[in-house]
């Protein structure tokens, strides 16, 4: 008998089969469904500089629907936080192409998908006045020409389980249709913003709206210089300022001649706002 063998029994907590299996998430009482309300259609391949970035058009918009797992009725999960994460996929496989492989052992990896890859939920009403929870990705850019897809994963974060080693897995996922990323010389141009995006912007979402390349070309043919996307946003802001001034004037002025005084006050307020924005635009262009 070999005297070097330890005769003591093996402790029960000793792991002899390798690392412990990953923790599994408990079944939640809700079912989470992601619907793509606005598909990405095209993009212009961007370079490595921040000034050369061109966003994917139109920006992807997704809607989250939460239902009870038993009854299937609409429900709300108030005990969790949500985040939607985006990755870049190959057109026909599930290969993640968000980050390109480095060219050498000492070379850093480069990202193919640029911009803000995570979005927070935004409760609002759509273009038809129906309330919902939306995720908008207005700052995505792709470096490589070709055909791609976007993969979105919904992460549910339990604020009561924020300890080290806690598992917060994906509770829903969805993949977009295939979209084209064009070289700069072949890019067909930006499209006009959808009614859904405009509706979300009117409710406070910080995103720009565009009139589209065709509208700018038509404006240039009439003798005016086609404005940039920032100019289009300024024009829309000026219109909204004038509308707000009319409402404010109508609410504060009453009595005989009040309607005329309200219009005068509205025009004066709109002119002051427009002059200030014109000065800002001139300083930006100089």
From TrEMBL:
PROSITE patterns associated with the record: VELVET (PS51821)
Keyword tags: Nucleus, Sporulation, Transcription, Transcription regulation
Localization: Nucleus
Compositional bias (Basic residues): 276-286
Residue numbers spanned by region Disordered: 208-260, 267-286
GO terms for cellular component: nucleus
GO biological process: sporulation resulting in formation of a cellular spore
Acidic residues compositional bias, start-end: 229-243
Keyword Transcription included in the entry's annotation: yes
InterPro entries: Velvet, Velvet_dom, Velvet_dom_sf
Top-rank taxon, per record: Eukaryota
Domain (Velvet): residue spans on this chain: 27-210
Keyword Nucleotidyltransferase part of the UniProt annotation: no
Protein's recorded name: Velvet domain-containing protein
Organism (species): Cryoendolithus antarcticus
């Amino acid at each position: 008998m070999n005297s070097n063998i330890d005769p003591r029994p093996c402790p029960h907590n000793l792991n002899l089969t390798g690392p412990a299996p990953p923790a599994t998430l408990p079944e939640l009482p809700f079912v989470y469904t992601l619907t793509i309300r606005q598909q990405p259609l095209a993009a212009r391949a961007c370079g490595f500089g921040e000034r050369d970035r061109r966003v994917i058009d139109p920006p992807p918009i997704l809607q989250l629907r939460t239902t009870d797992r038993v009854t299937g009725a609409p429900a709300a999960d108030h005990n969790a936080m949500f985040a939607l994460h985006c990755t870049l996929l190959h057109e026909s496989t599930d290969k993640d192409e968000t980050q390109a492989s480095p060219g050498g052992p000492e070379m850093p990896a480069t990202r193919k998908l640029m911009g803000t890859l995570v979005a927070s939920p935004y409760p609002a009403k759509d273009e038809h006045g129906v309330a919902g929870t939306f995720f908008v990705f207005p700052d995505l850019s792709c470096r490589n020409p070709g055909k791609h897809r976007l993969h979105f994963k919904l992460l549910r974060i339990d604020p009561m389980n924020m300890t080290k080693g806690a598992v917060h897995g994906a509770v829903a996922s969805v993949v977009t249709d295939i979209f084209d990323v064009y070289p700069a010389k072949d890019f067909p141009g930006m499209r006009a913003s959808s009614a859904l995006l405009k509706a979300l912007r009117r409710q406070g979402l910080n995103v720009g709206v565009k009139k589209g390349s065709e509208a700018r070309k038509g404006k240039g043919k009439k003798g005016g210089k086609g404005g940039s996307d920032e100019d289009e946003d300024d024009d829309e802001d000026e219109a909204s300022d004038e509308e707000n001034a009319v409402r404010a004037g109508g609410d504060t002025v009453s009595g005989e001649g009040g309607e005329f005084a309200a219009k005068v006050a509205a025009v004066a307020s709109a002119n002051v706002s427009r002059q200030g924005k014109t000065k800002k635009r001139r300083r930006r262009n100089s």
